[in-house]
Amino acid sequence: MVRREVPLDPIWDFHILSSSGEKQEEYKMLVPSCWESNPNLASYKGKAVYSKRVTFGGNARLVFKGVSHTAYVYLDKKQVGYHYNAYTEFNILLQDIPHGEHLLEIIVDNSFHEESALHVSNDYHSYGGITRPIVMEEIGEMFIKNTHFIPYQENGKWYAYASIKTLLSNLSNEKKLVTLKIKVGDDEISFVDKVLPPNAETLLENSFEFPAATTYTLENPKLYMLEAKLFDKGKEVDDLIDRVGFREVKVNGKDILFNGEKVIIKGVNRHEDYAEFGCALPLEAMYRDIEMIKSLGANCIRTSHYPNDERFLDLCDENGILVWEESHARGLSEEQMRHKNFEKQSLDCIKEMIESHINHPSIYVWGILNECVSNTEFGRSCYVKQFELIKHLDSSRPVSFASLEAHIGSDLCLDLVDIVSFNIYPRWYHETSVKDSLCNLKQFVNSTSGAGKPLLISEIGAGAIYGYRNNNQEKWTEEYQQSALTEQVTTILSDEDLSGVIIWQYADCRVDKGWFHGRPKSQNNKGLVDTYRREKLAYHKVKGIFHSY
Ligand code: ADA
User: 119 CB under 6 A from ligand 1?
Assistant: First the structure.
């Protein structure tokens, strides 16, 4: 390992900021964590500043895996970075910094300020703080910015091939001649004597054969270490390590194919939310979710409604759990989509999501714009732009978006997707039977350009308050939720026209204050487990059903 990390102690100085920017209450804050974990700040919305003295010098990259939701970064009182969106990674390049101690300050804002188009009052909570890990990396004059690995099939031969793209950065004022070596398992490939122009980025790309590669399957999720090493006159000057898998996702007619085999989706939607930790789940809590979801018999998680912490995606990779990764947006109206920053903030989110997560073999779908305005011409133009960007960045995965029941009859975007997906709530928001609801949906989809494509139920479910029990078939009881989910899930999984179901939702989650109507305890209570992961009756019932299909 050549690239060195500058150690950052996890305890930071922390001050609440007044509206005029003055430091007020003082705390110590753990990074990563949400400030809501501090009882005094459990409902705080606004600005705060994190500060720390760090000793380093030369060139460095400050990598933030997630700050919720707007970050202004200062080094020695000078602004060096800005980022919007809680759920995507960003980094800041610091060049020619004098060696010594420096003051690093990060102002974080989680208010629904007027520049914010995606973080708005919603059916989930926009927490505050540096909620995902942060690292400071020492780099030299040249470094490997990223390596993208796309496995593919040729001439009926599975997974012997991959296209590998590596972006190199030369920060010096001189032209450099370098060699890049990339090892995947035991195979090594090289880009020899490549010229890097001064102060520029250079993309090296080619396709390679890996004849000995073992296929990544859901039963045997074989991962390979990808090690990229950069050499300047024979001396190793930088390295980057990631994990990859050889697999292929395709759509054929109405089927979703994973390694050429039809897969039926049995999934759960999951928010990053946990009673004690808010959205900043420690690895143990993530791991527990993975264990519970596997034991449920599910094979898929939808990261509703934003890109997830990469450590969670790593766990999905390791456990062979398919991931529908979604860019950030939920239920935006046309007016909200016409917000002056909506387009830029959405496209940035997609770019950052794909750039940083493209190598995860578990991701099988890129999703966008959950339940937004896919039934107007303006709305459609937004979906078109976002899908174009996705296909430009990664054309190897199918794309989709979750439409809603209210758009049955009017959705204008079903031609844009590889997989048609709808969120429907029979037996919860209305009393139409599940069978009739599916019938209406299929009739509509078949009358559109979505006909003949895989059709997935991306949300269905019912609410229950953990521990509220009676046998009166009353809504909010665990018994009612169990009976609704039994009908919903068995009807979908028995229907051969459908590609499967993703239950809304795995665990209860906190919602924004404005959402208290229909949200007892200010939570979305449709979880199979509550915010502490205590199992409701429905968890056990669904487990039986998932294991029998
Ligand atoms: C929608 C939405 C979810 C959640 C759900 C519900 O379909 O996509 O975020 O709000 O409904 O509980 O009503």
Answer: no
Q: Is the CB of 401 under 6 A from ligand 1?
A: no
| Cβ(508) – ligand 1 distance below 6 Å | no
Residues 392 and 448 sit within 8 Å (Cβ to Cβ): no
Q: What is the pLDDT of residues 288-339, one digit of tens each?
A: 999 999 999 999 999 999 999 999 999 999 999 999 999 999 999 999 999 9
Instruction: Delineate the domains of the chain, giving CATH numbers in brackets.
Output: 4-137 (2.60.120.260), 142-244 (2.60.40.10), 260-548 (3.20.20.80)
Nearest to 159 by CA among 300, 320, 361, 332: 361
Phi/psi at 286 (5° precision): -65, -45
Q: Which distant-in-sequence residues (6+ apart) come within 8 Å of 280 by Cβ? A: 32, 33, 34, 37, 127, 129, 131, 132
- Residues 199-256 have pLDDT tens digits of 999 999 999 988 888 999 999 999 999 999 999 999 999 999 999 999 999 999 999 9
Count Cβ atoms within 10 A of the Cβ of residue 403 and give its class: 0-12 exposed, 13-18 middle, 19 or more buried.
buried
CA distance 138 to 436: 60
Among 246, 248, 249, which Cα is nearest to 185's?
246
Read off the pLDDT of each residue in 409-421 and give the average, rounded to a whole number: 98
Cβ(523) to ligand 1 under 6 A?
A: no
In the beta sheet, which residues pair with residue 208?
A: 162
Which atom from ligand 1 is nearest to the alpha carbon of 423?
7
For the whole model, what pTM was predicted?
0.97
Neighbour-count burial for 29-52, b at 16+ CB within 10 Å, e otherwise: bbbbbbbbbbeebeebbbbbbbeb
Length of the chain: 549
Task: Look at residues 182, 92, 82, 100 and name the one whose alpha carbon lies nearest to residue 139.
Answer: 92
Q: Who contacts 265 (Cβ-Cβ below 8 Å, separation ≥6)?
A: 256, 299, 300, 322, 456, 499, 500, 501, 502
* Centre of ligand 1 from the C-alpha of residue 281, in Å: 22
3 state SS for 436-462: HHHHHHHHHHHCCCCCCCCEEEEECCC
405 lines ligand 1 (CB under 6 A): no
Please name the residues in contact with 205: beta carbons below 8 A apart, sequence gap of 6 or more: 163, 164, 165, 166
